[in-house]
């Protein structure tokens, strides 16, 4: 499932695959499963978007659990939810969060930086960019994002960081604005909490410096296509081009 210490993610797993339970994806869980078998994957994590008001998770779990078994392919589950605020609140139904890692629940919660986790709730990229232009220091913004992610990790039994730092280019920043100290804090918290961290094909992140630092620290990096169509399951043109670490 994962690379060893100091390595990037192994590419025979896909830890972030969306189905028609997400309103922006087009393939069924069965179609994604078939794609994983064709791609020769050892692991597929089926994941769909949730908000606090989402009600489909029991149906989603029933459908995924009813899929036919294939030798050599492990099917895992998850929900993807944004981090809402600087305190690390997660935009998922409380009962879904409470059941994570139990037999009745999803296996992991994917923590996403779809919006900036501000002190008073989610800020859109536009609002965040305006606040930075108005004087919010980039370093302070990045620290708020990283600390919110760590708090969210600590608040659920099993987490996975989705597309780390995909938000930064949308708010005029880059991974160069993230200090080594903050990278190490996030990495240490991931290890301590058993949180996996994605290398995400769709968003082509995180970059080489971040991947290398986390891999060297022993963070469990996992490959993630973020597929919204079966044809993207386990397909890693960017990940293969950047190598395994
Ligand atoms: Zn996402
Ligand atoms: Zn996603």
TrEMBL record:
Domain Polymerase/histidinol phosphatase N-terminal: 13-85
InterPro entries assigned: PHP_dom, PHP_phosphatase, Pol/His_phosphatase_N, Pol/histidinol_Pase-like
Protein name as it appears in the record: Histidinol-phosphatase
Region (Disordered): 1-29
Cellular component terms per the entry's GO annotation: cytosol
PANTHER family found in the cross-reference section: PHOSPHATASE YCDX-RELATED
Pfam families in the cross-refs: PHP (PF02811)
Database matches in SMART domains: POLIIIAc
Gene Ontology MF terms: phosphoric ester hydrolase activity; zinc ion binding
Lineage: superkingdom: Bacteria
Residue stretches of biased makeup (Polar residues): 19-29
């Amino acid at each position: 499932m994962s690379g060893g210490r100091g390595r990037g993610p192994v590419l025979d797993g896909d830890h972030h695959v969306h189905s028609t339970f997400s309103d922006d994806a087009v393939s069924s869980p069965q179609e994604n499963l078939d794609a994983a078998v064709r791609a020769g994957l050892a692991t597929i994590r089926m994941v769909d978007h949730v908000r606090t008001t989402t009600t489909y998770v029991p149906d989603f779990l029933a459908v995924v659990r009813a899929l036919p078994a294939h030798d050599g392919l492990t099917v895992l589950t998850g929900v993807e939810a944004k981090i809402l605020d600087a305190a690390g609140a997660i935009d998922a139904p409380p009962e879904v969060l409470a059941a994570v890692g139990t037999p009745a629940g999803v296996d992991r919660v994917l923590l996403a930086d779809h919006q900036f986790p501000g002190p008073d709730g989610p800020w859109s990229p536009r609002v965040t960019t305006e606040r930075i232009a108005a004087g919010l220091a980039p370093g302070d913004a990045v620290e708020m994002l990283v600390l919110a992610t760590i708090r969210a990790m600590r608040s659920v039994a099993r987490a996975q960081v989705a597309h780390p730092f995909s938000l930064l280019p949308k708010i005029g920043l880059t991974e160069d604005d993230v200090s080594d100290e903050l990278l190490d804090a996030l990495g240490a918290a991931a290890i301590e909490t058993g949180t996996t961290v994605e290398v995400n094909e769709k968003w082509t992140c995180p970059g080489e410096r971040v991947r290398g630092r986390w891999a060297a620290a022993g963070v469990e990096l996992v490959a993630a296509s973020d597929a919204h169509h079966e044809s993207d399951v386990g397909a890693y043109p960017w990940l293969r081009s950047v190598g395994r670490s």
